[in-house]
User: Fold this.
Amino acid sequence: MEQIPPEPPVSPTPRPNWWKRNWKWFVPLGCFSIALLFVVFVGSVVVIVFSAVKSTDVYKDALTRAKSHPAVIEALGSPVTEGFLVSGNTNVNGASGEANLAIPVSGPKGKCTIYVAAKKSLGR
Assistant:
């Protein structure tokens, strides 16, 4: 009987690297994460800007006057609540400045917009 030499061992197929195994979930997740970070950044900027406008004396004074004015309460009902999307601009330089705002308000009977035009001179 003749002996047959053993076949050389076949090396197993090398395992693909991490990127080849995981790119199908990594790419969409990475894109989604970048988009989510962008949305969070833009949302943070919007909240900071609206908070800054809502913290001005002009905004607070106009809202206080509207909430206590009998004609506004009669038209909108009570309680009168302010909306989120305030538009307009304020420009204050030391003891002088001006502001033009549009403040959305609503109540049980409806909603409207308060338009505010104010000037500050010598601290008042």
Notes: The chain has two domains: 17-54, 56-124. The chain has a mean pLDDT of 88.
